Amino acid sequence: MSDKRHFEIKFEGRFADGRMLPVATLTQVLGAMQRAVHLLAMQHEKVSVRQRERVSKAVEAKYPLLCSIPQPGSYIVPVEIGDPSVALFATEDVEAVGELFSDCCTFLSKGEISGLAARIPDSSRRDRFVEAVRAMTPSQGSGIQAGISQPSGSFRVTLDALHNRGKECLSTSTDPERQVRTVTGRLSEINFDERKIRIVYPANNRELECSYSEALEEMLLERPRELIQVTGEVIMDENDLPKKIINVESIDDVDLSPFYLQHIEYNGRLFEFVKPLELTPEMDETEQLYCLEKSQLGIDVFAYTRDQLDHELKEQIAFLWDTYARATDEELTGAALTLKHNLRAALREVARAA
Q: Going from the N-terminus, what domains does the chain have, and what CATH number goes with each?
């Protein structure tokens, strides 16, 4: 039996190792995968690309994402693409869309944009697909990792790889004079006809106009009127404050959920906390920077995005370990010696198997 439409999503880490998973995480991953499948179904069915791509009832009926009971493992969810029973030749179509999904995800994970473009030639539909696949990834720092594969083993990628490569694929900046930045503000207006939004920049309460691509429209429809982050080419004023954002690359919620630290991987090294540690980020007074602090362990990091904060945190933990935990007592005095003992009591570096 062909397994082109059969997939498994394997969750690992926090909760998942005990064969449990937050409903919000499962809903996020499956909902984003369903959006990606619908886009590929429209591509396969040769549905004309429109400014606002709405999924027809026929596509919804033919290409639903169907989940089975979780299987033994960390937390494995079997998923099938499509309902072959809806039409005489539906089996061929749903298998074709399943194969298209695995092909597109493989090209995306490897950064092979030409292969992705060959399967989704229209750039706007391609961007929508990339955004949907990127949204499948559990929140950075949540302690939950996930990957998707096929039972035969012919297809296997991590969702982190899709998330990171996807952002590179969506990069639109070509002018070195312009700065790609992330700006945080409160959503105040959406103009779908002109594909523009306005956000209020907290530092001076200025409204910033942001031009976005149609690939981001579905996400905007789901955004509440609270803090969001807009990444794009930022035009600055004479006081070096943003006044306009063009070529928006991404729009994301401000995610202040805790970072769950149990295992940290950085540059091929693995660190393990003796007791899982939760750190809750806060926004700084400008509401532009995520901040994390744990003074007992010397952790004090900040970044414009949660993804960047996750990287900074891992980098600092490796630095603190090398600088303090691995130093001899004779090399350290006072607070530095206390920090060494705190670090060695809290975590350890794990040797990887050869």
A: 6-170 (no CATH), 179-253 (2.40.50.140), 259-350 (no CATH)
